[in-house]
Amino acid sequence: MTTATPDQLIVTIDGPAGSGKSTLARRLAARLGLDFLDTGAMYRAVAAKAIERGIDIAEEPYYVVELARNCPLRFDWQTDPPRLYARGSDVTDRLRDSDVAGLVSDVAAIGAVRSVLVENQRRIGVEHPRLVTEGRDQGSIVFPHAAVKFYLDASPAVRATRRAEQLREMGKPVQLQNIRQNIIERDRKDSSRPDGPLICPDDAIRIDTSDMTLDAVLDLLEQNVRVKVGTRV
Ligand code: DC
Fold first, then answer.
1. Domains and CATH numbers, the chain
2. Strands (E), 72-213
């Protein structure tokens, strides 16, 4: 469904890897009392399952499509952030591993995988109509009718440092140079694919967060939402 239902209040946050989307979307949702959807986690879950099954994504993309179609993804909305289950097993702790990060752009470039996940995301938007959702195509493709759209950006160097900090906090191994390369490569793939490429929608509020603190960006996002939707939050 690409038209808004009357009860829907959707805020989309799109942007490249490391622009701060996940943290900001989650904190914005908490401030406004909305649910939070991390759509990158869904692509990561399919990548993690493909690795588990030993699928060669480049050679056998059709198996990945089949996997996406037959592997129901379910968030546990009682946890914060929501934990993600793929076919009943909790994959949350796999999502940030480097093998998954290295493959996920290739998974996200498969048009038929995107169709499955886009449909899934729209269904979540009906079941959770008051939602902050973040990804690459949320304002452009998935929820073009969203009440408020943001596009966050930052320089590759700043984004790599942020991602490294995130990984350190999770106790994962960190090699800044590799992270930076991975981010640049993912930007290239995400922006150039024919289906649902990373773009800034015309009606999105664009914010360069390179020189801003997280709290300053959060305040700016909240202000904009409150101005746009008034008493609905
Ligand atoms: O936001 P993230 O780093 O968790 O995203 C992981 C990958 O999934 C990244 O390569 C972009 C892709 N992605 C996408 O294509 N569309 C989305 N809506 C979300 C993520």
1. 10-218 (3.40.50.300)
2. 73-76, 83-86, 89-90, 130-135, 148-153, 205-208
